Amino acid sequence: MGKTRFNVSLSLDGYMAGPDQSEENPLGIGGMQLHEWLFDLEAWRSSHGESGGVVDASTPVVEELESGYGAVVMGRNMFGPTRGEWGVDPWRGWWGDNPPYHTPVFVLTHHGRETLEMEGGTSFHFVTDGVASALDQATAAADGRDVLIAGGASVIRQCLAAGVIQEFWLSIVPLFLGSGERPFDGLSVLPSLELIDVVSAPKATHVKYSVR
Amino acid sequence: MGKTRFNVSLSLDGYMAGPDQSEENPLGIGGMQLHEWLFDLEAWRSSHGESGGVVDASTPVVEELESGYGAVVMGRNMFGPTRGEWGVDPWRGWWGDNPPYHTPVFVLTHHGRETLEMEGGTSFHFVTDGVASALDQATAAADGRDVLIAGGASVIRQCLAAGVIQEFWLSIVPLFLGSGERPFDGLSVLPSLELIDVVSAPKATHVKYSVR
């Protein structure tokens, strides 16, 4: 049986994305800075269709994060910047024709839509009956591998409150964002945690926790 | 010339103290948990008049935090749970007759009061004309050693906004508090940071940042 897990890059003031998400600012204003530690890494670039890049202490963390899962759950705002009905030329994700997931991805939305088959094994399934249903479908699809909760903040918060998370990595980034989306704001349940790993890298401090 | 610095133990949801501070709960409800990594340490116990204790990876961090400063600045709520006028039998701090500071401590308050001389070299000076004045007085008193900003959240926030902090340690504790005091909430200025050290200890992850 796989784990249900997530990972987020967090500013010191606790934000995983900036405010005012838009097509120009997928991670909200200033949010891209939270992922700068990733963009130069060969491990990240190769899984996003780019060549070159560096190897540093973050590499094994990224390799762990990007492997071992068999399905993904994400919120609609993580899937795209559009809201409401999908319309005649609906949004197909931020990631081009070959998204980096290569598994079924269950997108939480209030607006139903046909499954979207992409290249490379990624398919987007639109789930309108809530996070528990999305988790059930993802667990079945993962077939014993992990279920990755990709975000955003609201989905992570709901999954923590529902007690389904077994493990998560925080990548703590040395900056203040000032505003945006906090995954750990207004938690209705406070899970007990255990510190299980720390990796000190040049541009982020990665800390892994398990939920007891 | 010494540095102006602070250090806080922070929950994953960004709190350095719980809500509803009182004489029974100096760090707010649940806040004491944030410091559990400290209480067993010989380095902490010896500076608080207790014998015994353990040595672990946190020890050099505590030794660094507790040495090298020549003056302290703190807010009134860190000094005690009373509010308003000091009254006829005024509060003398949480720390007994021999507080662990052994230097002048400048307490920000709206209510003036005579300087309080304690045992072991600690003196409490009550500053009614604002944080800039307290910092000036502390810098003069420190005489080339560091100025320690002891807290609470509001004083740390004001000092970050004023651009006077050169360095800080976060001790990131594996728990969620759910509510309380966040030092990095509503920052009016967002200082640029550099990650300078990480110490992985059993019950906390210590990360040191400098402000550019």
Overview of this structure, please?
The structure is a homodimer of 212-residue chains. Chain A has 212 residues and is α/β, with parallel strands linked by helices. Chain A has a nine-stranded mixed beta sheet, with helices on both faces. In chain A, 43% of the residues are buried. Chain A has helices spanning 36-39, 42-47, 59-66, 76-79, 131-142, 153-161; strands spanning 4-11, 69-75, 104-108, 116-117, 123-127, 146-151, 167-173, 193-200, 205-211. In chain A, helix 4 (76-79) links the parallel strand 2 and strand 3. The longest helix of chain A is centred in the middle third of the chain and has 12 residues, at 131-142. At the A-B interface, strand 8 and strand 9 of A face strand 8 and strand 9 of B.
Instruction: Give the ordered list of helices and strands of chain A.
Output: EHHHEHEEEHEHEEE
Oligomer: homodimer
What's the N-to-C terminus distance of chain A?
17 Å
Overall average pLDDT of chain A: 96
| Number of DSSP E strands of chain A | 9
Poorly predicted segments of chain A = none
Q: Which structural category fits the helices and strands of chain A?
A: alpha/beta
The largest β sheet of chain A comes out as: 9 strands, mixed
Radius of gyration of chain A: 16 Å
- Give the percentage of residues in beta strands of chain A: 25-35%
How do the strands of the widest beta sheet of chain A line up side by side?
4-5-3-2-6-1-7-9-8
Percent in helix of chain A? 10-25%
Question: What layout of secondary structure does this protein have?
Answer:
The structure is a homodimer of 212-residue chains.
Chain A lengths: L3 E8 L24 H4 L2 H6 L11 H8 L2 E7 H4 L24 E5 L7 E2 L5 E5 L3 H12 L3 E6 L1 H9 L5 E7 L19 E8 L4 E7 L1
Parallel strand pairs in A: 1-6, 1-7, 2-3, 2-6, 3-5
Antiparallel strand pairs in A: 4-5, 7-9, 8-9
